[in-house]
Amino acid sequence: MPYRAAIGSTSFRFDSLRELLAKATPRRSGDELAGIAAASEAERAAAQIALADVPLQAFLDEPLVEDDVTDLIHRTHSDQSFAGIRSQTVGEFRENVLAKDIGVIRSGVTPEMAAAVSKLMRNGELILAAQRLPVVSRFRTTVGLPGRFSTRLQPNHPTDDPRGVLASTLTGLYFGCGDAVIGINPAGDSVESTITLLKLLDDVRSRLEIPTQSCVLSHVTTQLRAMEAGAPVDLIFQSIGGTEATNKGFGITLSMLSEAKEASQGLNRGTVGNQTMYFETGQGSALSANAHHGIDQQTVECRAYGVARAFDPFLVNTVVGFIGPEYLYDGKQILRAGLEDHFCGKLLGLPMGVDVCYTNHAEADPDDMDSLLMLLALSGVNYVMAVPGSDDVMLGYQSTSYHDALMVRRLSKRRPAPEFEAWLQRQGLLDELGEPTGIDNLRLAIGEWASALPRG
């Protein structure tokens, strides 16, 4: 079905919903690389005008691609929740999103609807709407409560040296980091190294009685094999995409994710909940795998959230600038994408975090990341990354640091997850105002902790 709009005396035609969504997307290098972006700002404005008049029902009637992700989205869609917005257009839905709490109809919103409405919103509107859509998840900590701000402590090491991982972990704990998860991207993907790192993190957690969860971000099949070998697995991680072909490139199927969820929940290792899945996504992953089917990268990203939603995850985060400037060219595009991803994830009911990051060949710098970080805190983001010195020496990209997380908590008056905050206070590392208690306590605590941990 063609869609039309005019700017002045110039008329524009868009031959499909897929083309309309791509042309309505705020400018980004990935869509230009794919050859699907608007050719001018006038065409982009015309596409947005036409998109505002599209009925939400059209996204159910006109699938963007036929694959197992589309099947999953339609199979898990709640027609009962959708009934309250069925008669609305994208533009009318935008007004509702901005005017009131629409959390009750989340299961009636498809990823494509979420992507469409976000394309009509300015940055401030994405922040305002996301702030009204808290999502809480539970395992050993409760993440996403209003007034809380959590972090993934990311003690990566280029050779998986346990001493380096341990040093980064203990330092991060002092800064109050790690209440979302202590998660390592391993340098290798072997079952043996995964088990070694899982045992190290679990030993730290259990000996110090830390109410948090750990994860080694190997491939899902590697983690399942580690679990079968008796490794202490809390969360199961996997990168996912918004098309069947993208997930095939990741070496996964939806049935693998179902198996992983069932196996991990069967361990019953959580204390305040049993949500065990951890997913990572990122705009541009489908294009980089030549698996986007002509769909713009932000809409494909939202479809990945449709996959995540079906598995009731504990954590989801977009690695917003990780894939590179070919997909998000500069700080402005990264900032916009981060706000879009967070809003769309929350609209779809996901416990959404963001890796505020960039690669060194992007036209971005730490000031751009500070801006995005603070805007996300204002939006109510569930968690961000906490990397030693903000420089991940294993993955080779720039993210947010332990100090950045502390800065956000001070400026936004947000505190760690309640169970983790109570532990920090018991350890004497956090005062009643939520402030770290000083470098002397850091030295003392690390000395005591290290002496309690195994050598070698």
TrEMBL record:
Name the InterPro entries on file.
Aldolase_TIM, EutB, EutB_dom_2_sf, EutB_N_sf
Keywords attached to this entry: Bacterial microcompartment, Cobalamin, Cobalt, Lyase
Q: In which pathway does it act?
A: Amine and polyamine degradation; ethanolamine degradation
| Location in or out of the cell | Bacterial microcompartment
Any one Gene Ontology molecular-function term assigned to this protein's record: cobalamin binding
Q: At which positions is adenosylcob(III)alamin bound?
A: P186, Q238, S288, M394
Is Cell membrane among the key words of this record? no
Q: How does the cofactor bind to this protein, according to its record?
A: Binds between the large and small subunits.
> Would the keyword Lyase turn up in this protein's UniProt record?
yes
What cofactor is needed? adenosylcob(III)alamin
Q: EC number(s)?
A: 4.3.1.7
Which residues are listed for substrate binding in this entry? R152, L153, Q154, N185, E280, D355
Q: Spell out the reaction equation it catalyses.
A: ethanolamine = acetaldehyde + NH4(+)
Give the record's GO CC terms: cytosol; ethanolamine ammonia-lyase complex; ethanolamine degradation polyhedral organelle
Q: What GO biological process term is on the record, naming one?
A: amino acid metabolic process
Q: How does it assemble?
A: The basic unit is a heterodimer which dimerizes to form tetramers. The heterotetramers trimerize; 6 large subunits form a core ring with 6 small subunits projecting outwards.
- Similarity-based family: Belongs to the EutB family.
Q: Which PANTHER family match?
A: ETHANOLAMINE AMMONIA-LYASE HEAVY CHAIN (PTHR39329), ETHANOLAMINE AMMONIA-LYASE LARGE SUBUNIT (PTHR39329:SF1)
- Role summary: Catalyzes the deamination of various vicinal amino-alcohols to oxo compounds. Allows this organism to utilize ethanolamine as the sole source of nitrogen and carbon in the presence of vitamin B12.
What is this protein's record name? Ethanolamine ammonia-lyase large subunit
